């Protein structure tokens, strides 16, 4: 009986110990579970911190870029402001010039008409070198003066060009074909002028020649001894022969 009691007591004791072990295991498990949750929470928190840090770095880079762009824009705006100020000065200067144009026109336009009239009178009194061509040029100038599509500056340029051409007639040798009136007949001929010093003509068959008398405003028949020389002069002007001395009828100085 005592052994049975001892065995029973031992069994009861083992069961008691087992029960106490089971009871004591529950808090430990809870602690482990809480620790796991804490670790998971800490991991998530760290991930959030990492994300926030990365976003902060991105925002910092963007901020620096914005600051750099702002500085660049400030420098550029200052540059544009200087350009605008310079352009405004140029505009103001042009406006002052435009405002003065009306006054200039009032003086230039009458001058141009006087220049055309003087040119026309000069051609009528001058040696008739390319007479028809020069008269046509004057008529074109008159037409240009009445054309609203041609600026005053262009009109003035054309008049100066005409004067320049007239100047060349007196300093160069020329040869051209045209017609002359002699003895009531219109004759086709080759013309040669030595500046305004001499104007001669030679019939196309080279059998007759004439010289212009500007005082009498008429053509005079040329002596046969001059025909060969006039023919050579015409060829020299056309660059068919080298320039050389030739005999031409030149009015004597008074």
From TrEMBL:
Coiled coil, from the record: 42-104
Signal peptide: 1-25
UniProt cross-references to InterPro entries, sorted A to Z: UCP028069
Pfam name, any one: DUF3450
UniProt KW Signal keyword: yes
UniProt keyword annotations, A-Z: Coiled coil, Signal
Protein name per UniProt: DUF3450 domain-containing protein
Organism annotation: Planctobacterium marinum
């Amino acid at each position: 009986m005592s052994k049975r009691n001892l065995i029973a007591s031992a069994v009861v004791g083992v069961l008691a110990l087992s029960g106490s072990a089971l009871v004591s295991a529950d808090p430990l498990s809870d602690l482990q579970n809480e620790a796991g949750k804490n670790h998971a929470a800490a991991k998530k928190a760290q991930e959030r911190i990492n994300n926030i840090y990365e976003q902060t770095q991105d925002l910092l880079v963007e901020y620096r870029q914005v600051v750099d762009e702002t500085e660049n824009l400030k420098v550029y705006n200052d540059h544009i402001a200087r350009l605008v100020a310079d352009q405004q000065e140029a505009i103001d200067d042009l406006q002052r010039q435009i405002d003065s144009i009306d006054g200039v026109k009032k003086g230039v336009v009458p001058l141009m008409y006087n220049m055309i009239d003087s040119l026309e009178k000069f051609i009528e009194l001058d040696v008739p070198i390319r007479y028809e061509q020069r008269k046509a040029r004057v008529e074109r100038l008159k037409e240009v003066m009445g054309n609203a599509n041609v600026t005053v500056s262009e009109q003035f340029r054309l008049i100066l060009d005409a004067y320049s051409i007239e100047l060349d007639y007196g300093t160069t040798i020329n040869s051209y074909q045209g017609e002359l009136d002699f003895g009531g007949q219109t004759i086709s001929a080759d013309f040669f002028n030595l500046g305004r010093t001499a104007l001669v003509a030679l019939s196309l068959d080279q059998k007759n020649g004439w010289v212009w008398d500007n005082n009498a405003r008429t053509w005079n028949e040329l002596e046969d001894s001059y025909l060969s020389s006039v023919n050579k002069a015409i060829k020299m002007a056309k660059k068919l022969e080298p320039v050389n001395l030739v005999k031409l009828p030149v009015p004597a100085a008074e």
